[in-house]
Specification:
The protein is mainly α. The chain has 9 helices and no strands. The chain has 2 domains: 89 residues, DnaJ domain (Helix Hairpins); 131 residues, Up-down Bundle (Four Helix Bundle (Hemerythrin (Met), subunit A)).
Length: 230
């Protein structure tokens, strides 16, 4: 069992922070690592940790389970010792592991699964928009749209959990693009979720634009992987 990091410290919030505080902290960190602000991004492990922390603390059940584990010092101590032993073992393995093999593993077990999940979310939006355009006030069509958003949030959490595994240094370029694709997708879903609350088309247009940016980042990520020869 791996040692669990302090997700509250990673996001810079207190143990008593509410969901709004957590979302605001996450958005602040996302903007800090945005390519427009920090075009020479290199701390991909930090990015992965931020996504992992948000994925847990923004979900009520995951957060409750995490808090419960943190309140058990003996269990935490055993987990830490086990993690230290596991880390030492992994370090010895990594010393003998061929770096190209590590890259291939990341591409197959992280990159492609994450890429497929984001593409699934992005590809389904166009169909939803066409259907919704028939009558955005129709309760059945609106419910389908909300079901799509809920399903997409679940798929996105799966993608973020996979991405949080980290990446070998040679794949940093692809990982950075994938990271921004994930964030644009998350922001797009958040914008789209506002539409049913007031039927303001602005949220649909903004969500579509964020999805276009996410698709562009996916293309860049795929190009980077192809340059690696995987």
């Amino acid at each position: 069992m791996a040692t669990e990091p302090d997700y509250y410290a990673i996001l810079g919030v207190t143990f008593s922070a509410n969901l709004t505080d957590i979302k605001l902290a996450y958005r602040r960190l996302v903007k800090q690592f945005h390519p427009d602000v920090n075009p020479h991004l290199t701390h991909h492990s930090d990015i992965a940790a931020i996504n992992a922390a948000y994925a847990v603390l923004s979900d009520a059940r995951q957060r409750a389970a995490y808090d419960s584990r943190q309140r058990q010092p003996e269990t935490a101590g055993r987990a830490q010792r086990a993690a230290q032993a596991g880390s030492a073992h992994q370090a010895r393995q990594h010393q003998t592991q061929d770096l190209d093999t590590a890259c291939q593993t990341w591409v197959q077990e992280v990159f492609h699964p994450v890429h497929r999940r984001i593409s699934r979310i992005l590809g389904a939006l166009r169909r939803q928009m066409v259907t919704l355009a028939a009558d955005p006030y129709d309760s059945m069509l609106l419910q389908r749209f909300q079901d799509y958003l809920a399903e997409s949030q679940g798929v996105l959490r799966q993608a973020e959990a996979l991405f949080a595994r980290g990446n070998p240094p040679p794949t940093a370029g692809a990982a950075a693009c994938l990271y921004h694709g994930l964030n644009h997708t998350r922001e797009g879903l958040e914008e789209l979720a506002y539409f049913p609350l007031g039927f303001n088309d602005h949220y649909l247009y903004t969500g579509e634009e964020l999805f276009r940016r996410a698709a562009w980042q996916l293309d860049l990520a795929m190009q980077a992987v192809q340059r690696l020869g995987h």
